[in-house]
Specification:
Oligomer: single chain
Radius of gyration: 26 Å
Number of strands: 11
Distance between the termini: 55 Å
Number of helices: 12
Structural class: alpha+beta
Largest sheet: 8 strands, antiparallel
Shape: elongated
Strand content: 15-25%
């Protein structure tokens, strides 16, 4: 038994006393900084004087002036010749970082958790960045015989990989993706890709089926993330069959009791610019799913994606 857990340890008792409940520590100086920034953010088109800021927040002028001076020196605020204050350029950098970085991701992750809890199905959140597909988070993924941790896995964003990650992007983005040098030969052309994308945009989701034989897409993604040497990966890549995206469904059967061997159901999360910021995927991996189940899962993942889009201020 470790010292930390030994019964009767007075140090342990002290620690328990101080950690038995949430400890709330506040910093009044920090709160005043936050209050000033929030006040100016709430009135972005109005510049305020020292007196106006101090009066609205109930601060004394010397204290308020000290904070304003420090924020101005750091470019978080600007001060003009009329001695009025407004938001400064440094906040643009922070805003951009929050929009593209972990702050944004932390807002979306609870949606993934709720979706997994609601459906009991594995979930994956992915994005694209600098020519790569990046898995940002996963919950409940259990692939038989495959013990990889998909989180942080990266793959090249080039055909045939990444169709679901660009399907709801602008047409020129789709064209640029298709024009990249394919990772393996393609047995289908742009028309096939367009028909899949049109279906996804029409329905709001794309279903990727389980296939009798491992599809080129799945085999390629596993190979690229295997950790083997580039020479071995390149040699094995030459033996993969051409890809044709035949695992994607463009329409579900009309009979709700019909069987669909579903691997993934994918839908977009948009940011405030209308860009496909993330791709949210349910991963049932069910060879015996019914059409009715697929529709239920599709509704759930689309609802979660709409929630995440709303959180990001997207459309």
């Amino acid at each position: 038994m470790s010292d930390y857990n030994r019964p009767g340890d007075p140090k342990q008792a002290d620690r328990s006393a101080t950690t038995s409940g949430p400890v709330e520590r506040k910093s009044p100086p920090t709160e005043r900084v936050v209050q000033i920034l929030e006040l100016l953010a709430d009135t972005p088109h109005e510049r305020l004087t020292l007196t106006q800021i101090a009066d609205r927040l109930g601060l004394n002028k010397p204290t308020c002036l000290g904070i304003l001076t420090a924020l101005t020196d750091a470019d978080f605020l600007t001060r003009d010749h009329a001695k009025t204050y407004g938001l400064g350029p440094a906040l643009l950098r922070l805003g951009a970082a929050a929009e593209t970085g972990l702050a944004e991701l932390d807002l979306v992750r609870p949606v993934l958790t709720e979706l997994h809890g609601q459906t009991g199905v594995g979930c994956v959140l992915s994005t694209t960045h600098r020519g790569q597909i990046i898995v940002l988070d996963q919950l409940g993924i259990d692939l038989p015989g495959d013990h990889r941790d998909l989180a942080t896995e990266r793959s090249p964003l080039a055909p045939p990989l990444g169709l679901v990650n660009i399907a709801w992007e602008r047409d020129d983005v789709v064209d640029a993706w298709f024009d990249r040098t394919p990772l393996i030969p393609l047995a289908a052309g742009r028309d096939r890709v367009r028909s899949i994308i049109d279906s996804g945009r029409r329905h709001g989701y794309l279903i990727q089926q389980l296939t009798t034989n491992t599809s080129s897409n799945i085999a390629l993604a596993a190979l690229l993330s295997s950790g083997m040497s580039p020479r071995i990966i390149e040699a094995l890549r030459q033996h993969l069959p051409p890809a044709d995206w035949s695992e994607f469904l463009t329409a579900l059967p009309g009979d709700d009791s019909a069987i669909v061997p579903v691997a993934t159901i994918n839908t977009p999360v948009f940011d405030r610019h209308g860009t496909q910021r993330y791709t949210l995927s349910l991963v049932p991996n069910r060879p015996d799913a019914t059409v009715a189940q697929c529709r239920e899962w599709a509704d759930a993942v689309m609802s979660a994606a709409r929630t995440a889009t709303g959180i990001l201020g997207g459309r």
